[in-house]
Structure formats: C-alpha cells, structure tokens
Design goal:
This protein is an alpha+beta fold and 111 residues long. 37% of the residues lie in helices and 13% in strands. The chain contains four helices and six strands, in the order αααββββαββ. It comes from Petrolisthes cinctipes.
Length: 111
Amino acid sequence: MLNAYNLWLVKKNIDPSMKPKLREFVYNVAYQLLEDFGEPTTNIKGRPPNPMPDLIIDAYSRHYPVHTEMANGKRKPRDCYVCKHTTRRQKKRTRVVIICNECNIELCIVD
C-alpha cells in the first residue's frame, strides 16, 4: 500500500502540502474495492443464532431481585440459597437482604 500510495502521488503530481495521509489513501482504496467487488455474503460459518423461545423470555421478565420485607425499620437478613446449597465449592453462610420476587429464594447478587 505504501508503494501504491507513492506511485499515486507521483502520477497525480499532488502538491506536498495538500496530499492526503496514507491512512486516508488506504481507506479510499478499500472503499473503492468494496464498492466494485464487494458482495454481502450469506455463508456465515458456525451455527445459526437460535432465537429465544417465548417461554424463556417470559421467565426472564418475571425473575428479578427485590429487597426483603422490612421488620421494625430493618431488613431481615437471610442466608443465600446458592452459597448454602452449593456442591461446586465449599459451602458458606452469606447473609443477604435480596430475594427473587418469583421464587422467593435468597440470593447474593455480588458473587
């Protein structure tokens, strides 16, 4: 591209103060090539995207975190369900004040 740029400058006899930058030249060449020879391709490699079924989308719209009920002006902390019942790591006790509004299960969102 550098050689093509230099040849183009010599052939066009462009004033050095007005010459475009190499980056602009490369962009213009690529743009012109795509304009002449570029075609949209439909040969996308890999598995085609699978749209989410309505059931899953509906489930995501129903499950969202909310704070627990307040008692005497304070939130009643509970144990996180995931941390308490995990089998992939050591079980731990995490006190949380956030639950899933649909399942009523305590969750620690940070971890």
